[in-house]
Amino acid sequence: MYKAQGEKHWFIPDGYIPETSSGSLPSHESICVLNTSSEEALLRITIFFEDRDPMTDILVVIPARRTKHVRTSSLGKNGVPIPIGVPYAIELQSDIPVIVQYSRLDSTQAENALMSTLGYPIK
Amino acid sequence: MYKAQGEKHWFIPDGYIPETSSGSLPSHESICVLNTSSEEALLRITIFFEDRDPMTDILVVIPARRTKHVRTSSLGKNGVPIPIGVPYAIELQSDIPVIVQYSRLDSTQAENALMSTLGYPIK
Amino acid sequence: MYKAQGEKHWFIPDGYIPETSSGSLPSHESICVLNTSSEEALLRITIFFEDRDPMTDILVVIPARRTKHVRTSSLGKNGVPIPIGVPYAIELQSDIPVIVQYSRLDSTQAENALMSTLGYPIK
Amino acid sequence: MYKAQGEKHWFIPDGYIPETSSGSLPSHESICVLNTSSEEALLRITIFFEDRDPMTDILVVIPARRTKHVRTSSLGKNGVPIPIGVPYAIELQSDIPVIVQYSRLDSTQAENALMSTLGYPIK
């Protein structure tokens, strides 16, 4: 049995899905989650906006002893995806401890730009 | 009622508003703040410089259950904005806990460069 | 005698070795480890994937009072390297405290993109 | 009297001064330090390498209520600068608490790449 590591509650204030891509790689963001334990982790994601109420209860499963680099463009609620070109923020709650990092590849212009940060854990 | 999450006091030592832009996106910095609570958050921002006294008491409101990606070029005091092309540092105090991330898009040259980090919280 | 500083257990959820390079610098990732102590540090690295079991017990030595910027493309097990173009995550355990930062240079397109973050320490 | 904020001891494992520059901005790294207090801060910096003994006791002063974005290319000992094109790591000790962030601009190729992270504080 492997132990769950990290925290159950994480935040990423700077979310943004770029509107355009060019070159060989599409613009995208990834929420990179690591589940070290022998049990699967159930994530409950909330998306906060500047001008409207949050999207709540987006569910994602991370299998046991696996990582998952979740594309934010794949997330949504009732068939409605996270809107592109809009600033937002991410709250992530997990039933067991996980570790969370956020990265963005922006290929709006011909060459790529990258940024990454750990999530902010609530302990 | 939703609970405030994070900390009331944050720092970002590396602030810099690029002087020039090219291509389709303007150079800019964002202080990305998330307020998870049911009450609005009142931020009090201080800007530190290398060669002059700080700019103090810049006020920003983050509505309840909202994020705000604050452009630093929109911040100022008595009609005087943060100067561009000058290294500075940011102190952020909030009346309720919030979570803070800082990101910069530099389009000084034709293609973009991105950087991001969480703020440093005082606990 | 110099003291070991940092933590013995670190995580980096967003690992990825880019498939292609162009220009004068090859795409690469580095796990940057600092060992401040007068004793050498023995690292035991585990690589987690999205779709297969982890690669375990990859060993790296960091000499006393030295840093080592470990290229992930140099890591492997039984002659099998970490696969390129595949999302993965990194667990790093050390017999003495060290400090860990992760950086990636992506030169998939003609110009470079950089990202960096501290590892996530378990205290 | 303003209070010192942050920590007295910080690490940055991934230091590197790029060998070449192109375009309008030179490649450089900055150690961005914020001193919120009414007293000046005296920093003592140690540089660790992969293959040689550390450079020790590099001194930098941060004035009261000021930030300083220290170019690493300006640091050295007995007239010897930090070598360029060589991986290294940074230890920073201050006589009073400060906050530390590290950023790198790489203009090896025609367009810029940026990375940034907070330092790792010892509490």
Quaternary organization: homotetramer
Largest interface (CB within 8 Å) is between:
A-B, 30 and 31 residues
State the order of secondary-structure elements of chain A, H for helix, E for strand: EEEEEEEEEE
Q: CATH superfamily membership of chain A, which one?
A: TM1070-like
- If classified by CATH, what would the architecture of chain A be? Sandwich
What is the approximate shape of chain A? globular
Distance between the termini of chain A: 24 Å
**CATH fold topology of chain A:** Hypothetical Protein Tm1070, Chain: A
Highest-level CATH class of chain A: Mainly Beta
Percent of residues of chain A in beta strands?
A: over 45%
Helix-and-strand structural type of chain A: mainly beta
The beta-strand count of chain A equals 10
Q: What composes the largest sheet of chain A?
A: 8 strands, antiparallel
| Mean of pLDDT of chain A | 93
- Uncertain spans of chain A, ≥5 residues at pLDDT below 50? none
Approximate helicity band of chain A: under 10%
The gyration radius over C-alpha positions of chain A equals 15 Å
Q: How many structural units, i.e. domains of chain A?
A: 1
Helices of chain A, by number, come to: 0
Protein name (chains A, B, C, D): Sensory rhodopsin transducer
Pfam families (chains A, B, C, D): ASRT
Organism (chains A, B, C, D): Paenibacillus algorifonticola
InterPro entries (chains A, B, C, D): ASRT, TM1070-like_sf
